[in-house]
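Re: the request from the purification team.
They wanted to know what the chain is likely to look like in 3D before they choose a buffer screen. I agreed to run a prediction and write the result into the notebook, where they can find it.
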Amino acid sequence: MLKAKELLAQAGHPQGFKTSFSYNVGDATLAEPAALLIQEALAKIGIALSIEKVPSAQWGTLQTEKKLPFFIDSSSAWFNDPDYFFRIFFQGDWRWNFGSFKNDELAKLLEQARWETDRAKYDRAIQRAIEIAFEQVPLVPLWLPTFEAALQPDLQGFTYYIHGQVDFRPLTRS
């Protein structure tokens, strides 16, 4: 807690500050308890949060227009490739770059990694991308949901996808 207060003072907020914390009401089951815990924890270092429950119909617009200073959301990358994850969530001027993050070194690494066929070079680029994210913390991932599926023995063709959606088209019964 002392380090957090020290960092606030270095940032020009020795007495803390006030801001809002938003969540989509459609995600209230997870987001409301998280919001309350975050509010309680940050109050200890002088950050006062007002919690805003945003209607689902407005959520995407407010994110796209970057009008939410602090919020919780759930999302996943549709492809199970680290470079894709970083390109979607850590660069670009779109909704999914939640932290409005821009880092020239990261952009260069990801462009190289995107087309890299040498696994060792790809892994080095992604390792550096991870280091950049840990150093600068443009967003804080809280958890990765698990996906469990119970299948009848005669059901064939199930494929797990990182985004957690089931594609029913290849499913067959034997």
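For the purification team: Helices lie at 2-10, 28-43, 56-64, 82-89, 104-115, 119-136.
Please add any questions underneath this entry.
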